[in-house]
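If you are new to this repository, start here. Below is one unmodified record pulled from the training split, so you can see the exact layout before writing a loader.
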Amino acid sequence: MQNKRLNLFLLKNTVMSLLGSAVIMAVLTGLMVQFHLLGNFTFHTIKQLSDIPGLYNSGISNVEMAFDKLQYMGYDYCMDGKRVGGYYCAWINDKFMIVLIDDTETVIRDYTVQGQLKKDPATCSYILSQCAESAGISKEQLEKITYDYMISEIDYPKTFYGIVKLAFYLALASAVSFVRGIIPGSDTYRECLTGSWLCVI
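And here is the target side for that same chain:
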């Protein structure tokens, strides 16, 4: 009889705690759906450059692409007067592709860029005009051998999405832990009954 009352007490308090975790998970999930965050945890792998226009037009922005070699172009991206990234280019299928990454090396090899697929005509036009002037050719010639799209690591908020993902996983782990605690026969359930550990409910 005493064990039965203890079981009911544990069940009641654990369910109440589980409801709290469920509410947190529901709120987090709702926010991620509302602000379209769920799709931002994964990256679409670009295997062929011919796939890029279709991805861009369909609204897929988070992409990753492997490069054998990236060459620093001599231009930086700054925010509030502080350098946060640099513009690099890769020579692929007889064309240049520009990427914006957070690095300081002049040449980078075997690097996978994870970021947002975007168009930035103003920036590309400025960089190409400067490069064309240095090379002694027209900007139009350079534009013909440069892809219209770039991948930007800087525009993908890794820290923000990392915090959101961590909060979601913590809430999920908490819910799973509470569920295990109310399943008869589980280690957590037996430990609560025997008093071998302190159940904080």
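Two things worth knowing about this chain: The longest strand covers residues 62-79. Confidence is low (pLDDT under 50) at residues 195-201.
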